[in-house]
Design a protein that fits this description.
The chain is α+β, with helices and mostly antiparallel strands. It is built from 19 helices and eleven strands. The chain has helices at about 15-20, 40-45, 90-95, 120-125, 140-150, 160-170, 180-190, 195-205, 205-210, 210-215, 230-245, 250-260, 275-290, 295-315, 320-330, 335-350, 360-375, 380-385, 390-405; strands spanning about 10-15, 30-35, 45-50, 55, 65, 70-75, 80-85, 105-110, 115, 125-130, 155. The strands form three sheets. The chain has a seven-stranded mixed sheet with strand order 3-4-5-2-1-8-9. Strands 6-7 form a two-stranded antiparallel sheet.
């Protein structure tokens, strides 16, 4: 115990206790201080950083120490809370305001586990259970529960799933701000099983509220010869699972998630074919990204995957000019990483079908060879041979087409 916290009631809380019990590496540690005042914390050398309630940074470790608090919802929306951080707030009262039992445990400085809501048992049983009825006061918790499912692959307790469904039906998630929806979703995409985030949101009815474009894919049929799983929504989640297996990159995972949005707009009399879904999908991706304020890098990759994934699947049938058009759209000359992201997302789509999970995807390597051949063209030498900008551009294009044609002689 350091002299900074001597004679204070200090407890390690939340995720650090949970992860420690799971045998996982503890990356961030949060502490709760019971019985202290802001003035006392400042006198001990802590630095105040909390805006809504007192949170302090330790002078040496810079870890967060929050005064024990209760909270009460006073108006609709995420920010409508009032807090009580008086010295008589108990540790159990502080733990009771937390979302899930597995996050409502504390550990004393001597190592004693304080677990008033059975979080350790729920960890062993791999159950996500809400701590108290106050759970319903924060709509972000709908997304957080789904994200914890994606992280730990745990099951949501029946009573908690019922509560989530009631929150959705009561319109609680309608109050979520776009930035928070995207923040939780981006975190979920980085988890071990991101498809379970979407499954959980759909299970409680929240998916049609926060991602209506994705929810609309369920029940949309596809051709069985290409998609034995038939349902477009099922395929989307299968592809996302493959993306998680192929890449840790959340941009790849997001692009895979939204690559088939256009299929929800296919006229019923054209089903199960989806001619032109790439164009429709690109527009839906733009609207989704605008609504949730998704970063541009995510949007750009998603639209490229939507537009060109079928072309990469059929690269051995394409003419050199069509391949070059795809390469130029990917712009590997200035953004080499994006081409690899694109190929990973396309491979995830290809393998995200019943029976195709273990198939090879040689199309990606073929595109890599074409990109490498195109990059080897000495554009500086071409430019030095002429002053005419249009002539230079045409010559560079012709040399790039020739380079691709040498790799794909049967497609010329």
């Amino acid at each position: 115990m350091s002299h900074y916290t001597e004679n204070l009631q200090v407890y390690l809380v939340g995720g650090a206790v949970r992860d420690q019990l799971l045998g996982m590496e503890v990356k961030d540690r949060d502490w709760v201080v019971v019985g202290a005042t802001p003035e006392e914390m400042l006198k001990r050398g802590f630095r105040a950083v909390g805006r809504d309630f007192p949170v302090f940074l330790h002078p040496l470790s810079h870890e967060e120490y929050a005064l024990a608090r209760t909270e009460r919802k006073i108006r609709a929306g995420y920010s409508g809370f009032e807090f009580d951080t008086s010295p008589d707030v108990t540790l159990q009262q502080d733990l009771a305001r937390r979302d899930l039992t597995i996050n409502a445990m504390a550990q004393s400085e001597t190592g004693e586990l304080i677990d008033p809501f059975g979080g350790a048992q729920d960890l062993r049983r791999k159950i996500l259970r809400h701590t108290s009825p106050a759970f319903i006061e924060d709509p972000v918790r709908v997304l957080r529960v789904a994200r914890f499912v994606a992280r730990f692959d745990f099951k949501v307790a029946n009573e908690t799933l019922t509560l989530l469904t009631q929150m959705v039906q009561a319109g609680e998630v309608d109050a979520l701000v776009a930035e928070r929806v995207w923040q939780e979703t981006e975190h979920a995409l980085a988890e071990r099983s991101p498809s379970r985030y979407l499954e959980t949101l759909r299970q409680c009815g929240a998916l049609r509220k926060v991602f209506p474009e994705i929810d609309a894919l369920f029940g949309i049929p596809q051709r069985g010869d290409y998609h034995p799983e038939i349902d477009t929504g099922v395929h989307t989640l299968m592809a996302l699972s493959e993306a998680a297996r192929l890449s840790d990159d959340t941009k790849v995972r997001f692009a895979t998630l939204v690559h088939d949005l256009g299929k929800a707009l296919t006229p019923e009399d054209e089903l199960p074919s989806h001619r032109g879904h790439e164009k429709n999908g690109k527009e839906l991706i733009a609207k989704l990204c605008d609504r949730l304020r998704v970063p541009k890098a995510f949007r750009d990759l998603a639209q490229l995957v939507c537009r060109y994934h079928l072309r990469l699947h059929r690269i051995d049938e394409l003419k050199p000019a069509t391949i070059l058009n795809m390469i130029e759209a990917l712009d590997p000359f200035r953004k080499p990483k994006r081409s690899e992201q694109f190929m990973h997302a396309c491979e995830a789509d290809y393998k995200g079908r019943m029976g195709s999970e273990e198939k090879n995807y040689p199309q990606a390597e073929q595109l890599r060879r074409c990109i490498q051949a195109v990059k080897q063209i000495d554009t500086a030498a071409v430019a030095s041979s002429s002053q005419d900008g249009a002539a230079i551009a045409e010559e560079i294009r012709m040399q790039r087409l020739s380079a691709i044609a040498r790799l794909t002689p049967d497609q010329v």
